Amino acid sequence: xxxxxxxxxxxxxxxxxxxxxxxxxxxxxxxxxxxxxxxxxxxxxxxxxxxxxxxxxxxxxxxxxxxxxxxxxxxxxxxxxxxxxxxxxxxxxxxxxxxxxxxxxxxxxxxxxxxxxxxxxxxxxxxxxxxxxxxxxxxxxxxxxxxxxxxxxxxxxxxxxxxxxxxxxxxxxxxxxxxxxxxxxxxxxxxxxxxxxxxxxxxxxxxxxxxxxxxxxxxxxxxxxxxxxxxxxxxxxxxxxxxxxxxxxxxxxxxxxxxxxxxxxxxxxxxxxxxxxxxxxxxxxxxxxxxxxxxxxxxxxxxxxxxxxxxxxxxxxxxxxxxxxxxxxxxxxxxxxxxxxxxxxxxxxxxxxxxxxxxxxxxxxxxxxxxxxxxxxxxxxxxxxxxxxxx
Length: 391
Prior knowledge:
- α1 (13-26) packs parallel to α2 and α6 (297-314) runs parallel beside α7.
- The protein has 391 residues and is α+β, with helices and mostly antiparallel strands.
- It starts with a strand and ends in a 7-residue tail after the last strand.
- It has two domains: 2-194 and 300-389, no CATH class; 197-294, no CATH class.
- It has helices spanning 13-26, 48-59, 136-146, 222-231, 235-243, 297-314, 341-350; strands spanning 2-8, 33-40, 64-68, 72-74, 77-79, 85-91, 96-106, 109-113, 124-129, 152-156, 168-170, 173-175, 179-184, 190-194, 197-199, 204-210, 213-217, 246-250, 263-272, 277-280, 289-295, 320-328, 355-360, 363-367, 370-374, 378-384.
- The relative contact order is 0.17.
- It is built from seven helices and 26 strands.
């Protein structure tokens, strides 16, 4: 696998597209690209079609996906202000199939169509969805229940503020609704999800719950458990709890000691002071393990660092060849005190490999063996340079 990346800081779509292709192709040598991933800043909302046409004019017919986003990532940089185009080209990935999906409301609810996920189909799927018109969470729930083994990495486009403003790229077209994706049938893709939280206190077994409402933790009201926990925390952690409470739901109930990355992180959506119950952002089950969590810049840094280091060690000495980064638009300078945090961390651990990505309004990626829609997360698709020597 070979990859090349480009970052062009120009507002003219024809110039930006042309320069991006020239830069990205320089790293491929004579290898013809088999996939393109294109991200553009919000300055290209009105000129998205011209940008895509400029890119495809230079590359020729090419499977390509991407979107307009709040900010774009290229290499070790995160460009949060001003016009910017990031292009990632990959060669020798094997067959690539791009697709579009849409959601149509029906009297009985709605139907998702346009592409069929097959059970036990090899490879990974990259997806970018419009947050206003496509129910990504519903799709992932369906895949988890009925299409085991599917791997989905990507995010929700963040370039538009209302219905009809999103711009999704598919080959030579620009769409304003639905979702776009690419199925990589033979490429080796390592999917990483860094949720940016750390556990506090002790884990508890959910002893009473209904839907997304937890009414008992270890036989007592969750709010009582939380109050007892808060009383023993240092001042910094009490402050983080006051800013926003999260819970971690254990991925593997049979695992012994649990650490960061062993929980599916969800926010607390509400609480009932009278009953002591809490509502969380996912369905829960009696018998499931829950642990309260906090999130801050230090926790997010440590979690992403550990996730990248673990994946790098799993390569067994092979070099990463490229990566795609889908990071939350609540991260970046809104969370970290230094610029380019997530992209810079990828570069420091994986090396100066071609990376492209964008800030998302929600991130897609697997935790355990199931796919989820996340928030405040960094989701990464990492491609080894030499998958042929695996094992």
